[in-house]
Amino acid sequence: MGHENVSQGGMRRIVVRHPKDPVEAVMEADALDAALGTATILVRGPLFGVAAQDAGQAPRWQVVSAVEAGCPQQARDCLNSSLWYRAKDEARNREERCALLAAVARLESECVDDLTVLGTRYRIVRAEEYAGTGPDGIEQPRPTDPEPTVPDWDRSAKETFDDGLVLDPDAPVTPSQAAERLALRSLAYTGSRFPENVCGDSRQALQTHPDVVLLPTVFRIVEKSDPGWQTGGGLHASAHGARRSLDFALTWLQPRLQGFIAWNADDRETDARTVAAEGTDPAAGELAEYVRAADRLRSERANQVEARGTVHRICRVRRLLRWGPDGPEGPRPSDTNSHTPERMHPRIDEDGNIHHD
Q1: Residue 13, SS3?
Q2: H/E run at residue 39
Q3: Mean pLDDT in order along the chain per 10 residues (357 residues)
Q4: Of 95, 128, 149, 340, which has the highest C-beta tally within 10 A?
């Protein structure tokens, strides 16, 4: 595991490097300004994904399924599907296919968090999602967060994150990243809203996984009406991806949820913009309010808009993995699952034939 890079206190050394170029130097200055303006950290809860490690690659792991799942079983399901498709499409012979299918069979019936298949070790990994807050509330995107030169508002556009991400606890980091890692080493659940078993597991993790590795920043939509902020939707790779999702929610989804547009209305092109432009619908006035908010997202690259009493904000989400002698932390005993393991795909025999029985 590279014990030579672990201090006597059980924590790894953090190697700090200078910013690589002027762009990164500006991002560092932006990060410092954000840190000085942060009053507290809000922890939303855990996220889960899948990481893999090939022989001889320790201490590095590579993300093979984005760290975005809401519970461990969802991440196990992603691994199940990945191995099933490898058995279907990539296995070079019966031996490889049987090894992959044996792993799939375990994942269909057991809560497996660590297994080795064909020399590669797979692990369900656990991250904490958190965000900084300051005088203006939950942190919004920073000026130096990447933005597309020409925004793409196509509703079918897709974004991914964590693809091929290498997790290396010994990789040199910038001063702001080092400071954040040091500050968050002691992060643990406290307060009456957390059950004691959750707090106990959190305290235990400080001992078993004393180090912290930061994952790339992602973005989330949060909403506030009364009494406070709530999350809306999933994670996005960029602030623009979150705006595009919010544009869809304001112009297509919310009008249907509120009964202003019928669910059986014509295709995806029928939305608040098209109906409000016609001006004949009784709900045209309410729909126009959604359109004004959505248009601000497009014309101003706004990170906060309000429509019909609800404030929608794009917030900057951070994620951290706790790290121990054997690598990234896996699920804790107190983490809950939305469902149990189950069969997800048709049976494949050792010759690669699919059976729909």
Answers
A1: coil
A2: none
A3: 50 92 94 92 95 94 97 98 97 96 97 97 98 92 93 92 96 96 93 91 96 97 86 93 97 94 84 88 88 96 95 97 97 97 95 90
A4: 128
Between CA 353 and CA 270 the distance in angstroms is 43
Q: How many CB atoms lie within 10 A of CB 101?
A: 21
Q: How far apart are CA 151 and CA 355, in angstroms?
A: 45
Non-local (6+) Cβ contacts of 156 within 8 A are none
- C-alpha 325/C-alpha 73 separation (Å) is 24
> Can you tell me the distance from the alpha carbon of 107 to that of 99, in angstroms, rounded to the nearest whole number?
13
Residue 10, helix vs strand vs coil: coil
Name the β-bridge partners of 114: 123
Provide the token pair at 82: 């990945």
Distance of CA 329 to the CA centre of its chain: 16
Residue 5 has what pLDDT?
A: 58
The two structure tokens encoding residue 289:
């309010």
Helix, coil or strand: residue 321: strand
Task: Give this prediction's pTM.
Answer: 0.93
Residue with tokens 């170029």, as numbered in its chain = 21
The tokens 């893999």 sit on which residue? 52
Integer Cα distance of 85 and 245 in angstroms: 29
7: left (phi over 0), alpha (psi -120 to 50) or beta: beta
Round to whole Å and give the CA distance between 287 and 293.
10
Region for residue 233 given its phi and psi (left: phi exceeds 0; alpha: psi -120 to 50; beta: otherwise):
left
